[in-house]
Amino acid sequence: MPLRLGAFVHRRIIAPGALAAASVLLAIPASAASGTPGAPGIGDPYYPAYGNGGYDVSHYDLRLKYQPATDELEGTATILARTTQDLSRFDLDFLLDVSEVRVNGAVASFTTAGEHELVVTPKSPLAKGTAVTVVVRYRGVPSSKKAYGFTSWHRTPDGGVGANEPEAAWWWFPSNDHPLDKATYDVSVLVPDGTQAISNGTLQSTSSRLGWTRFNWRSNKPQATYLATLAVGKFDITTGTSDSGIPVVNAYSKDLGDNYDAARSSVERTGEIADWLSGWFGPYPYNAMGGYVPNTTTGYALETQTRPFYSPRQFANGSNTSVVVHELAHQWYGDLVSVAGWKDIWINEGFARYAQWLWSEHEGEGTAQELADYVYASHPADDPFWTVKPGDPGPENQFDIAVYDRGALALQALRNEIGDDAFFAILKGWPQRYAYGNASVADFQRYAEQVSGKPLAALFDTWLFQPVKPGAPAAREASVAARTLGAPGAPVQPRSWKKIAATNGVHAH
């Protein structure tokens, strides 16, 4: 997913009771007595206020109008969902100003709570298992909105971009903002002529009238809310088809300056790299691919589904295929199979980093084993690097470099323990086992044990969950060179190392 250490990572721990207390203050109408309020959080211990309880979304239809000159966004969101309890009221995660909410056609009352909660009380309570249509009319200036002290909406010289992890939706559409509630999307955006709107999936149609152009995008496979993206600006757009037959749409801001050619030299290889990754991870899981590079000042990249977001900074030192490999690997590890909870981030980041190691081997610039040996040797036992547990790093370390590098090292240790046949069968089989769903680190361990026929609890504990450097015996047992840099016979830096390390700027969000 993301990569970037250069900027502050926007992660906040919200007290579980804070929003709940705010919601309790809202009077429950007598008509809702037969139901109970949906929880103001989905239950993720890292982010207790993120997502919501009481319903499951199947589809978002977003009809938007955006004015780049003022950053004003006007929208009507139609949300198709099904209740999971008898529901008297429910929350949506959202920040813009709402003028009307309807539930199943009837006007609903609404208010706000906490930092980012829109609280909706339908005219009548909703029975468990009921199909629900929610319509929210809204408008606002996304760049003017902050929650927990930050924004995930990026103003550009010619428009704006919604892209961040673990939260970006609040700034442009109301949602149940957690990977556990994936949905399909139709995103229709009206912008002034000469400006383009980029989103996920396939461009269904465009039409122009009276100085405005409408772009209609469709993402037809389940997609987590943080993987939905919107970019409005003036782009050069390229189209093509991968060897595997998938349509490719790439977009580059016209004002990228010196980074323009390096960006194109990298992102234009999307089809080639995705086809190569399918040899390791199985068939590409969507009907569209590509990438976009807006003129943002951010430093990170993000695996927005079918169309990753790249910062111009990723290409400041020239072409960077390694970051493209990383974000495309997430289309399987992170997008197709999403985290069950944010503590499971290793299943996203460790695997995308390992894909970069495999690409290094493919390019003849260092094998995965050489990179694993170098990572182990580069960090002495007292390095704080080893105090981060990739298997459950905590919200403050969710995108720490250890989740990436130590996470990939753990995969090499697993590969050496169970052998290449079982390891690569797992890499290809896992995305199919949990396709379009969610899974945890514990699920992955069980799957690896099932495929390999070996008990792996000790190995996973050593490499993912102990806040210390695995000792020399553990390293030797996992066939990792137990030497430190500078010692006789110590690993040398693989040629790909600097290229891979250059993508560390993608980690912080």
Automatic annotation (TrEMBL):
Signal peptide positions on this chain: 1-32
Entry EC no(s): 3.4.11.2
Record-linked Pfam families: Peptidase_M1, Peptidase_M1_N
GO terms assigned for molecular function: alanyl aminopeptidase activity; metallopeptidase activity; zinc ion binding
The entry's keywords: Hydrolase, Metal-binding, Metalloprotease, Protease, Signal, Zinc
Domain called Peptidase M1 membrane alanine aminopeptidase: residue spans: 318-463
Protein name: Aminopeptidase N
Coiled coil: none
Biological processes, Gene Ontology terms: proteolysis
CDD domains registered for this protein in UniProt: M1_APN_like (cd09603)
Top enzyme category: hydrolase
